[in-house]
Amino acid sequence: AQTVTQSQPEMSVQEAETVTLSCTYDTSENNYYLFWYKQPPSRQMILVIRQEAYKQQNATENRFSVNFQKAAKSFSLKISDSQLGDTAMYFCAFMKPITQGGSEKLVFGKGTKLTVNP
Amino acid sequence: DGGITQSPKYLFRKEGQNVTLSCEQNLNHDAMYWYRQDPGQGLRLIYYSQIVNDFQKGDIAEGYSVSREKKESFPLTVTSAQKNPTAFYLCASSTPGEGTDTQYFGPGTRLTVL
After folding, report:
1. Residues near A57 by Cβ (< 8 Å), separated by ≥ 6?
2. A64 CB near a chain B CB, below 8 Å?
3. Do A106 and B108 touch (CB under 8 A)?
4. What is the pLDDT along chain A (118 residues), one digit of tens a residue?
5. Contact (CB, 8 A) for A58 and A87
6. Which residues from A are below 8 Å from B92, CB to CB?
7. Is the Cβ–Cβ distance between A23 and A6 less than 8 Å?
8. Rounded to whole angstroms, how far apart are CA atoms B101 and A102?
């Protein structure tokens, strides 16, 4: 079974600075997807960024980028120019697509609570 | 606007009662999911459905039931058999086959057993 580990329960960063959240996962699969979701105090789960394992290029979305190291099974999230609105729980998640079509379940880490300080 | 709605936002239940949580989506997504979130934990899958009239158990299905009579709707019933139902429940949907398989979430329902 796949597992996802987020080793940093809490982190803080000053506004406008850069922060990196860590995520490692364990799988024997070669093809899979990785996600970072953000859960602000409203508790709505919001997709931040997605990475396909077969792509060597790291995904980026505006101020958010990932460092995907497939051999090391590592998937860290970098937030540049941190903003107060980035304060939230961040969850790393793994998904294995099923070959006959359809979506597999998401396997989540326990989350990292990020606080952006003014 | 397209999206996923969940109702109610807060729900209180007495022990021994069944309650049903609503999840509706107008994104024309085929697959729908129910997750449970406990404090300090990530989300765990309760049930999922890839097409109408079909659904599968997830990791923690005991004490829960679902139905999928319409593509847009995937209600979750928390039965009296669920030992510890107090939690935050999130519904999600996705459309497989578009190369994305990305799950999008509703705003959640907070269930408290009194």
Report:
1. none
2. no
3. no
4. 789 999 999 999 999 999 999 999 999 888 889 999 999 998 999 999 999 998 889 999 999 999 999 999 999 999 999 999 999 999 999 987 765 555 567 899 999 999 999 9
5. no
6. 45, 106
7. yes
8. 8
One DSSP character per residue, chain B reads ---EEEE-SEEEE-TT--EEEEEEE-S--SEEEEEEE-TT--EEEEEEEEETTEEEE-TT-TTEEE--SBTTB--EEE-TT-S---EEEEEEEE-TTSS----EE---EEEEE-
Burial class for A19, CB neighbours closer than 10 Å (0-12, 13-18, 19+)? buried
**Domains recognised in chain A with CATH numbers:** 3-117 (2.60.40.10)
d(C-alpha A78, C-alpha B97), whole Å? 29
The amino acid at residue B110 is R
Residue A105 is nearest to which of B41, B48, B90, comparing CB atoms? Answer: B48
CA atoms within 13 A on the CB side of B28: 2
Q: What is the dihedral sign for C-alpha A35, A41, A42, A43? A: positive
